[in-house]
Amino acid sequence: MASGGLVSVPAMANESEWLFDGAATPVTPSTLQGYSWSQEHRLRESTAHLIVDLAQRLHMPRATGVTALVYMNRFFCVHAFQDHDRYLVGAACVYVASKTTECAMKLTDFTERTLMLVDDCRDKKSMPAASEVEHVKAKIRQYEVIILNTLSYELVVANPYHLVMLKLELVQAILNMPYEEVRDVAWLFATDAVKSIVGVQHTMEEIAAGAVYLSYLFHRIPRDTTACDSDRPWWTVLGLSGSDLDFVSKSLLGLYQHRRKRSPAALQRLFDEYPTAYRSTR
């Protein structure tokens, strides 16, 4: 659909209705129009980087950036990259998310800061002409409407960081690991998932469970460790079966497969040991 139009989609009753299946090469509007999956992956990744950078530059809460990432991934479940300016989509997703998470700013200020980031301007003196600022401002306002319609006004999304912390509390009651170390690695896994197509292949609950699970394995906690008063392994409190947890975790690890050899030693070890750790206790 052309970038100026509206799209009408059925009301989405819950998060699972936005999900693609777990295929390695999902069929999306962009691939149906001729892009390879690798092309779409790169476009999603670059748009996600813009969203994260913009939210950070504007000093918005972590929840705002995550919400915008979810909006972007869902938007391109319905629309093709070929039909839209991804930078305008990304900026508009941040703008809508800022309203949802109650940290909105004036559209003129938001547009100027967005252009400074995209055009790599050091200050307002090197900004584009006022007419261009007004043009981009109008486009962001237009995309705000398109995004709202695409999402069927379902703007409140699950926050993986909150879910990670809830699941960490459950596991910490059993293992009592250094909390911040485990939390930070789990947040890293969750963030990278939401930036990618994995964010629309699994629910946020599943992503949080997989992120926490991998973080403990990353910190060399054996999968078969149990609580003192139970014979159940620690990971059972995460709320997924062993096979489901394995499926999600492999999706998360797959995000790093292309740069596995350049990854930190601890992550390479997780790659090497993960299948063995899983098979030995299944």
Automatic annotation (TrEMBL):
Coiled coil: none
Keyword Transmembrane: no
Gene3D superfamilies in alphabetical order: Cyclin-like (1.10.472.10)
GO molecular function, one term: cyclin-dependent protein serine/threonine kinase regulator activity
SMART domains per record: CYCLIN
Record domain Cyclin-like: where: 49-149
Keyword Electron transport among record annotations: no
Keyword tags: Cyclin
UniProt record, GO biological process: regulation of transcription by RNA polymerase II
Entry's family note: Belongs to the cyclin family.
Protein name: Cyclin-like domain-containing protein
Species for this entry: Achlya hypogyna (Oomycete)
